[in-house]
Design a protein that fits this description.
The protein has four helices and no strands. With 91 residues, it is mainly alpha-helical. The chain has two domains: 36 residues; 55 residues. Helix 3 runs antiparallel to helix 4. It is flat, with a radius of gyration of 16 Å. The two termini are 33 Å apart.
């Protein structure tokens, strides 16, 4: 999770501006979903945040801790739930 702070801020601003344009331009959300596909929404909502928090908690645990915290493991479960939702919707 080592990322240049400038690049991290640039990506955050880019995502924020893309969301702002979608909201302010009155773009129908179904058009966005049709363009991106049905798997993108669960991926962005469930899989990425859960996995990133799991990696963050795993990388920042103390040296004497053998396992990640309960929050980290619940984030991993949230990620697996998102993967299950994607697989279920595609079958």
């Amino acid at each position: 999770m080592d990322m240049n702070p400038f690049l991290r801020k640039l990506l955050a601003v880019t995502i924020f501006l893309a969301n702002y344009v979608i909201v302010c331009a009155n773009i129908n959300i179904s058009v966005v979903v049709n363009l991106l596909g049905a798997t993108t929404i669960p991926l962005m909502i469930n899989v990425f945040p859960g996995y990133l928090y799991y990696r963050y908690s795993r990388d920042n645990r103390n040296a004497d801790e053998k396992w990640t915290s309960k929050k980290g493991l619940s984030a991993l479960a949230f990620t697996l739930l998102g993967v299950g939702m994607i697989l279920k919707s595609n079958l």
